[in-house]
Design brief:
By secondary structure, the chain is mainly α. The chain has 24 helices and no strands. The protein starts with a helix and ends with a helix.
Length: about 450
């Protein structure tokens, strides 16, 4: 008996590690008249009468299988299959020999990546009369995995459901496999239920919950747009597997929930740890800081990212930097990035923004120059307002006639009632000032 067990173990050295325990457990059942199966840490309902007197493999059949084994080890699969075909022609094969035969066929097909043929062989094994209960459950589990490999998810689901129905204590892995099948079939609520069961069973047994179970559970909640539950799963995931990407995903979940406070807390922590190294992440962090009125820190982060080469020296990035400085009431520090943004852009708006910074600093010549540049270009959002600023700048430079021209242009093009009235008031005031200057 021991020799036979060693023979069976040596037959399967190249089998995929996921399926190998199942193949071996079937073989051990075949050669043992009183067996107990512990496939995937589960106990199965068995018929004691059926198990007590399982027929043994005859010497003649054993010798042929041994020969086939040697051929398989030398990867001579065709010759091994020929021997199995000879055995199959024997009408006196007992149930144990038939089980061994079809399981061996399945292994040979599997070794050649012929998964449909391996599935067919296992289905034939499953259809054998007087099949021992342990062999049946092992075959069902193997079939569920093979059907996964061939993307036949409906059949994989059916087989794993049968396996669970025959199991007194289904394992966490079995429920996880069930959850995966449901997910592939887009039955996301069932997937969530099965995966939660897998996690609960794993915890009860004192084992660490597998990382990919949490990932699949998160994905299922995402498909249902249940971002609250997704965030809960991600919190558990980062507590066990604290990978940077999972913290980013958790921050994204809080973003979906509109909880920018928690999102910012995660992003800031990751930045301090040096875990935000992509341009989009830096911009996202800066935007969150601006939303939460922390513009100075946003400016420092953007400035460093541009210096370090994480953010490119583009007009938009310089505009974001200048916006941060302006919100932080650091107009003087906003001048340089605003100037760079204006020179890099073919639009007029960056020049207008630069002029506002100069106006805040009472630097009127520079304000006029920036406004003149901007108004000559396309893309100025509120040209009437810009001409009003130009008029005010000229006024502060005591150039009243040019100020009058700017306000007149604003009045002429404005469709905004408030801006039109403002321009009109300035025009009346300047007319008075110009007349007074002329009469003095």
């Amino acid at each position: 008996m021991n020799k036979m067990i060693m023979f069976i173990i040596s037959v399967y050295p190249v089998l995929n590690k996921i399926l190998l325990p199942v193949f071996l457990s079937i073989m051990l059942l075949i050669v043992s008249s009183n067996y107990s199966s512990d496939i995937q840490a589960s106990s199965h309902k068995t018929d004691q009468k059926q198990n007590s007197k399982a027929p043994l493999i005859r010497q003649k059949i054993y010798q042929k299988l041994s020969t086939a084994q040697q051929l398989v080890q030398n990867k001579k699969y065709r010759e091994a299959t020929d021997i199995l075909d000879q055995i199959k022609d024997d009408r006196r094969l007992n149930s144990t020999e038939l089980a061994q035969l079809w399981n061996f066929y399945a292994f040979i097909y599997f070794s050649q990546d012929l998964y449909p043929q391996a599935i067919e062989a296992y289905e034939t094994l499953l259809a054998q009369p007087e099949l021992q209960a342990g062999i049946k459950t092992s075959t069902l589990y193997t079939l569920s995995q093979l059907n996964f490999m061939t993307e036949n998810y409906a059949q994989a689901l059916a087989r794993i459901q049968q396996w669970i129905a025959l199991s007194e204590q289904p394992s966490a892995d079995a429920y996880a496999l069930l959850g995966q099948a449901y997910y592939k079939l887009e039955q996301f609520k069932n997937a969530i239920s099965s995966l939660n069961t897998a996690i609960a069973v794993s915890r009860t047994s004192g084992k660490m919950v597998k990382e990919n179970w949490y990932l699949l559970l998160r994905a299922s909640h995402y498909e249902l747009k249940d971002y609250k539950s997704m965030a809960f799963v991600l919190k558990e995931l980062v507590s066990i597997y604290p990978k940077p990407q999972y913290f980013k995903d958790l921050a994204g979940a809080y973003s979906q929930l509109g909880d920018t406070t928690k999102q910012l807390a995660i992003m800031e922590t990751m930045y301090e740890k040096g875990q935000l190294n992509r341009a989009s992440e830096i911009k996202n962090l800066a935007s969150l800081l601006l939303i939460h009125e922390v513009p100075y820190k946003a400016a420092k982060i953007i400035d460093k990212a541009i210096t370090d080469g994480i953010l490119k020296k583009t007009a938009k990035n310089y505009e974001l930097l200048s916006q941060s400085w302006i919100q932080a009431r650091e107009d003087k520090r906003a001048i340089e990035p605003l100037t760079k943004a204006a020179r890099l852009s073919d639009q007029g708006e960056p020049w207008i923004k630069l002029s506002r910074a100069y106006i805040n600093l009472d630097q009127w010549p520079q304000a006029v120059q920036s406004l003149e540049h901007g108004l000559q270009k396309k893309g100025v959002k509120q040209a009437d307002s810009s001409y009003i600023l130009l008029g005010m700048s000229y006024y502060n430079l005591k150039q009243l006639k040019k100020a009058m021209q700017a306000f007149s242009k604003a009045q002429q093009i404005s469709k905004n009632k408030h801006n039109k009235n403002t321009a009109s008031q300035w025009i009346k005031y300047l007319q008075t000032e110009i007349q007074r200057a002329a009469s003095s």
